[in-house]
C-alpha cells in the first residue's frame, strides 16, 4: 500500500486513533463512532468531517432522543474572502444560490435539512485537495456529498458545513477487459458505470435501487450492500484500490489495480464504510464480474417463513453457483405496491414472496437447473405459486416488485426505516413482534429485504410524524436486535440518525482474562 | 362453429434491449441478443385464453413462423394457456426475407386447415412495425377484420369489436369467421404461473413446413440499407435574451 504518512503509523487494532506525526489534526472523528459509544476527547479544533449532524425535521414535533441535535462545533463561518478563494479555484462551480442549494441540503427521504450556503463542485482530485487544505487551515467544516441517496441522514449538512459534491468527478479513467478492473472517479453514477461495463461484457459487482442517482464514491464510503451481495460479496472484497484526499488536503494514493497485494496495512479498508469521516474518496478501482449471458428471475409465493427458508436452502443446493439474489417481501409490501403504484401481483396472494435471480454463462444450463429447482419446490409444496421471467422487460417488472417498495412506502405516510442484520431464522420474528407491540398505533408494519444475507428492512408508517410512535418503536427495535446479537444497521450505515445507537451492536469487544498463575 | 382460435405469435428482439445496427448496414444485430414474444402477440394470446376461460371458444392454437427458437415463443403461449402449438419452420435466407405477405399466406392456409373460427394477431410487430399481417390474412381468406381492437365480445356468431382509431373509438359488428388484431388496451397479459409452465412442457407443438401448406415464400422486397436514427444534438444554455437572439440568428432560424 502506498502511504504518505511521514513517520511511523501507529494503527492500533482498536482503531482508537490514526495519528499523523507532524500533523496538528488528529482524525479523532472515527473515535466518536467506534468502541462502546464512549466519546474520546476532541483534542484538536481542526476536525473537518462533521460526524454529528442535526436532525432538523421539516415538520417539527416534540423531539425524542434520536432527534436531539448535536451542538455545532466551533468551526468558522464562511466569509466573502473564503468565497473569493473558492470562486477563483472553481469558476462557475461555486454555488451560493439558495434554490440550487436546496437539493444538497435535504436528504432523499426529506427527513433532515441542513443550512449550508456554499456548494462546491470540483472536477479533479487536485481541486478537492486544494479545497480541503484551505478549509483545514481556515477551520471550515466540510460535508462530502455524492448522490445524496443515503437513508440515515448522513449525506446532508447538519449546520452550515460547506457541501463538497463529487457530481462533476464523473470520468471513467480506465477499464481492463482481461482482468475486469475498472478505475473511475468517485462521482460516477452507478447506473452509468453499469451501462459502460455492459457494452464491454462486464457488470458492476453491486446493484441497488438507487442506482440511477447514487455515485460509486458514496457507495464505497457507506460500504453499500445491495441486491448482488449474495453472489459477488461486499465492497470490502471487490474494491481493489482507492484514492482519498485527507482532511488536511494530502492525497492518499492507494489506487492499486492489483488483485493481490500483501505489502503492508490494507489502509483502503478503513475508508470503505467510513461514511466520509476519514477522507473524501476521489477515485475507485473495482473488480467487475463478467456480464452474465443468461439472467432469470423467479417470483415465488410461500405460505410460511419457515418454508421460505427451506426454499432458500433448496435454491442454494440446486441452483448452486448461478444463484445471484434471494430477496423476500411480505404480503403487506405487496398491498402497498398495489395501492400506491398500481402494480399487479404476478402470482396468487400469499403471505410471503421470494424474488430469486440467477446469473450464468449458458442459458440452456441455467434454465434446466432452474426448472429442476422449480419442479422440486412445487412438488414438495415449499412454494404454492410462482412465475419465471427470462426476457429483460419481464425481469424488470418482477424486480420492481422488490425494488419499488421503498417508493411505495413514501406514498404511505411518514416512514420509520430500520435496516437490521439478524440470524436468518429470526428475521421475520422481529416484524411480527413489532406488529404485536405497536398494535393500532402504526399504519403499516412491513418486512422485506436481503433474506439471503440475513438482512431485514423493517419499515413502519404513520400518517404523519408521530413522536409517541417513535418512542414505542425505539429503543424496542434496537433492544430486540441486541438480544439476538444482530446489527442495528446492516448496510445503511449510521449517519446522523443512528449515531447514538452504535452501542447496541458493536463489532469490537474486549475480553479480559484473569492473569495465569 | 369449431370453437377454435388461431393465435399468431412472433419472436422479436426484446423491447428492453438496445438495438444495434450491423457494421455493414444490412440489418440489426440479432446474434446473442435477447428475444421474446412480441408484446402485441402477448395481448392476442391473453384475449384468446380469456375467451376460452369464458367458455366462448373451445381451443386455442398458437402459431409461430421461424427457426428452431420460435418454439420458445410458442411454449410461452402454451404457458399462458394455449392448448397446442404449430411451428412453421422457416430458416436461413427465407427467414431473413420473411414478411407480412408470406406470413399472412401461411396463416390463411392454416386457418382453413384448422377450420378456425377466429384468427387473433397482434396489431403489429415491434421490430418491423408493418401492421399488415392481420389485414392481409383477412383479405386472403376473404374474412371480415376487426383491427386495433381494444374490446372484443362474442355474440352468437358475430363479434363486436371496439376499435381504436384517430378520432376516438369505433364499434363494429362483424360475422365469424373473422380476423382480429389486438391493440395495447385490449387487456393486460397474465404472468405465466409455475403450474402452467410445468403443464406447458407436456403440450404438443406440431412441426409444419411452408411447402406442406402450399405457400411460396419468395419475397418481392429487398432491403437496401439500415441506418441508425441521427444522433440527437445537445441543447445549449444561454444567459440572456440577447444571447438567445444572437444564437437564433446564427442558426438561421430568425
TrEMBL record, chain A:
What InterPro entries does its record include?
Answer: FAD-bd_oxidored_4_C (IPR004113), FAD-bd_PCMH (IPR016166), FAD-bd_PCMH-like_sf (IPR036318), FAD-bd_PCMH_sub1 (IPR016167), FAD-bd_PCMH_sub2 (IPR016169), FAD-linked_Oxase-like_C (IPR016164), FAD-oxidored/transferase_4 (IPR051264), Oxid_FAD_bind_N (IPR006094)
What is the superkingdom listed in this entry's lineage? Eukaryota
- Tell me the organism's taxonomic lineage: Eukaryota, Metazoa, Chordata, Craniata, Vertebrata
Name of the protein this chain belongs to? D-2-hydroxyglutarate dehydrogenase, mitochondrial
What this protein catalyses is: (R)-malate + A = oxaloacetate + AH2
- GO cellular-component terms in the record? mitochondrion
One short Pfam name that applies is FAD_binding_4
Cofactor(s) the record lists: FAD
Matches recorded under SUPFAM superfamilies: FAD-binding/transporter-associated domain-like (SSF56176), FAD-linked oxidases, C-terminal domain (SSF55103)
Instruction: Please name the source species.
Output: Oryzias melastigma (Marine medaka)
Q: Which UniProt keywords apply?
A: FAD, Flavoprotein, Oxidoreductase
Family that this chain belongs to? Belongs to the FAD-binding oxidoreductase/transferase type 4 family.
- UniProt-listed GO biological process terms: carboxylic acid metabolic process
EC number(s) stated in the UniProt entry for this protein:
1.1.99.39
- Give the protein's function: Catalyzes the oxidation of D-2-hydroxyglutarate (D-2-HG) to alpha-ketoglutarate. Also catalyzes the oxidation of other D-2-hydroxyacids, such as D-malate (D-MAL) and D-lactate (D-LAC). Exhibits high activities towards D-2-HG and D-MAL but a very weak activity towards D-LAC.
Pinpoint the FAD-binding PCMH-type domain residues.
111-291
Q: Where is this region: Disordered?
A: 53-77
Show the GO MF annotations: (R)-2-hydroxyglutarate dehydrogenase activity; FAD binding
TrEMBL record, chain B:
Q: Which GO terms describe its molecular function?
A: electron transfer activity
- Superkingdom in the source lineage: Eukaryota
Tell me the GO BP annotations in alphabetical order.
Answer: amino acid catabolic process; fatty acid beta-oxidation using acyl-CoA dehydrogenase
Q: What is its main location?
A: mitochondrion
Location of the protein in the cell: Mitochondrion matrix
Any Pfam family hit = ETF
> What is the protein's name according to its record?
Electron transfer flavoprotein subunit beta
What is the species listed in this Swiss-Prot or TrEMBL entry?
Oryzias melastigma
Amino acid at each position: 500500500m502506498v502511504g504518505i504518512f511521514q513517520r511511523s503509523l501507529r494503527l492500533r487494532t482498536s482503531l482508537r486513533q490514526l495519528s499523523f506525526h507532524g500533523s496538528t489534526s488528529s482524525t479523532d472523528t472515527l473515535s466518536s463512532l467506534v468502541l462502546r459509544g464512549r466519546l474520546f476527547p476532541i483534542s484538536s479544533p481542526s476536525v473537518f468531517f462533521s460526524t454529528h449532524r442535526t436532525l432538523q425535521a421539516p415538520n417539527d414535533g416534540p423531539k425524542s432522543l434520536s432527534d436531539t441535535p448535536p451542538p455545532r462545533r466551533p468551526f468558522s463561518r464562511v466569509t466573502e474572502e473564503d468565497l473569493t478563494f473558492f470562486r477563483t479555484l472553481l469558476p462557475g462551480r461555486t454555488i451560493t444560490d439558495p434554490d440550487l442549494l436546496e437539493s444538497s441540503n435535504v436528504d432523499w427521504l426529506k427527513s433532515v435539512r441542513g443550512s449550508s450556503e456554499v456548494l462546491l463542485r470540483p472536477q479533479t482530485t487536485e481541486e478537492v485537495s486544494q479545497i480541503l487544505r484551505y478549509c483545514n487551515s481556515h477551520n471550515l467544516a466540510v460535508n462530502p456529498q455524492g448522490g445524496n441517496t443515503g437513508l440515515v441522514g448522513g449525506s446532508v449538512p447538519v449546520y452550515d458545513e460547506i457541501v463538497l459534491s463529487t457530481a462533476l468527478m464523473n470520468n471513467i479513467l480506465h477499464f481492463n477487459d482481461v482482468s475486469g478492473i475498472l478505475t473511475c472517479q468517485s462521482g460516477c453514477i452507478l447506473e452509468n458505470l453499469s451501462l459502460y461495463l455492459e457494452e464491454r461484457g462486464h457488470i458492476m459487482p453491486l446493484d441497488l435501487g438507487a442506482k440511477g442517482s447514487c455515485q460509486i464514491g458514496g457507495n464505497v464510503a457507506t460500504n453499500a450492500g445491495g441486491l448482488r451481495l449474495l453472489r459477488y460479496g461486499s465492497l470490502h472484497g471487490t474494491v481493489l484500490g482507492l484514492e482519498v484526499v485527507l482532511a488536511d488536503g494530502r492525497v492518499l494514493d492507494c489506487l492499486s489495480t492489483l488483485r493481490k497485494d500483501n505489502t503492508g496495512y490494507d489502509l483502503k479498508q478503513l475508508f470503505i464504510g467510513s461514511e466520509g469521516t476519514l477522507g473524501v474518496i476521489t477515485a475507485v478501482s473495482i473488480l467487475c464480474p463478467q456480464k452474465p449471458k443468461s439472467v432469470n428471475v423467479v417470483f415465488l409465493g410461500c405460505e410460511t417463513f419457515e418454508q421460505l427458508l427451506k426454499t432458500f436452502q433448496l435454491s442454494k443446493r440446486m441452483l448452486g453457483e448461478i444463484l445471484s439474489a434471494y430477496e423476500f417481501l411480505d404480503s403487506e409490501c405487496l398491498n402497498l405496491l398495489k395501492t400506491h403504484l398500481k402494480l399487479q401481483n404476478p402470482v396468487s396472494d400469499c403471505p410471503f414472496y421470494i424474488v430469486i435471480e440467477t446469473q450464468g454463462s449458458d442459458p440452456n444450463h441455467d434454465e434446466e437447473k432452474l426448472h429442476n429447482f422449480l419442479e422440486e419446490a412445487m412438488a414438495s409444496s415449499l412454494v404454492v405459486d410462482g412465475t419465471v421471467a427470462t426476457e429483460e422487460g419481464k425481469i424488470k417488472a418482477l424486480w420492481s416488485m422488490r425494488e419499488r417498495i421503498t417508493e411505495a412506502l413514501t406514498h404511505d405516510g411518514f416512514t420509520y426505516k430500520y435496516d437490521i442484520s439478524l440470524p436468518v431464522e429470526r428475521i421475520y420474528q422481529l416484524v411480527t413482534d413489532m406488529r404485536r407491540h405497536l398494535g393500532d398505533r402504526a399504519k403499516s408494519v412491513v418486512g422485506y429485504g436481503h433474506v439471503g444475507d440475513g438482512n431485514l428492512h423493517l419499515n413502519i408508517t404513520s400518517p404523519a410524524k408521530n413522536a409517541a410512535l417513535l418512542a414505542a418503536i425505539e429503543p424496542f427495535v434496537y433492544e430486540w436486535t441486541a438480544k439476538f446479537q444482530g446489527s442495528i444497521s446492516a448496510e445503511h450505515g449510521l449517519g446522523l440518525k443512528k449515531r447514538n445507537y452504535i452501542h447496541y451492536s458493536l463489532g469490537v469487544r474486549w475480553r479480559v482474562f484473569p492473569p495465569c498463575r | 362453429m369449431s370453437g377454435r382460435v388461431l393465435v399468431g405469435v412472433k419472436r422479436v428482439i426484446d423491447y428492453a434491449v438496445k438495438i444495434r445496427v450491423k457494421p455493414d448496414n444490412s440489418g440489426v444485430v440479432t446474434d446473442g441478443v435477447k428475444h421474446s414474444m412480441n408484446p402485441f402477440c402477448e395481448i392476442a394470446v391473453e384475449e384468446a385464453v380469456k375467451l376460452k376461460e369464458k367458455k366462448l371458444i373451445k381451443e386455442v392454437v398458437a402459431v409461430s413462423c421461424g427457426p428452431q427458437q420460435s418454439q420458445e415463443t410458442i411454449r410461452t403461449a402454451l404457458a399462458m394457456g394455449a392448448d397446442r402449438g404449430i411451428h412453421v419452420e422457416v430458416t436461413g435466407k427465407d427467414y431473413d426475407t420473411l414478411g407480412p405477405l408470406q406470413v399472412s399466406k401461411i396463416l390463411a392456409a392454416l386457418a382453413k386447415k384448422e377450420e378456425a373460427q377466429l384468427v387473433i394477431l397482434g396489431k403489429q410487430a415491434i421490430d418491423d412495425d408493418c401492421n399488415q399481417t392481420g389485414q392481409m390474412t383477412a383479405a386472403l381468406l376473404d374474412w371480415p377484420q376487426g383491427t386495433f381492437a381494444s374490446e372484443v365480445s362474442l355474440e352468437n356468431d358475430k363479434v363486436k369489436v371496439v376499435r381504436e382509431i384517430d378520432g376516438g373509438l369505433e364499434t363494429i359488428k362483424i360475422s365469424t369467421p373473422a380476423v382480429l388484431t389486438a391493440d395495447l388496451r385490449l387487456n393486460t397479459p397474465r404472468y405465466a404461473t409455475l403450474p402452467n409452465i410445468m403443464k406447458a412442457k407436456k403440450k404438443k407443438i406440431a412441426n409444419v413446413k411452408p411447402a406442406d401448406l402450399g405457400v411460396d415464400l419468395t419475397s418481392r422486397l429487398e432491403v437496401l440499407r439500415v441506418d441508425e436514427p441521427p444522433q440527437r444534438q445537445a441543447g445549449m444554455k444561454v444567459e440572456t435574451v440577447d444571447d438567445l437572439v444572437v444564437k437564433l440568428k446564427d442558426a438561421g432560424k430568425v
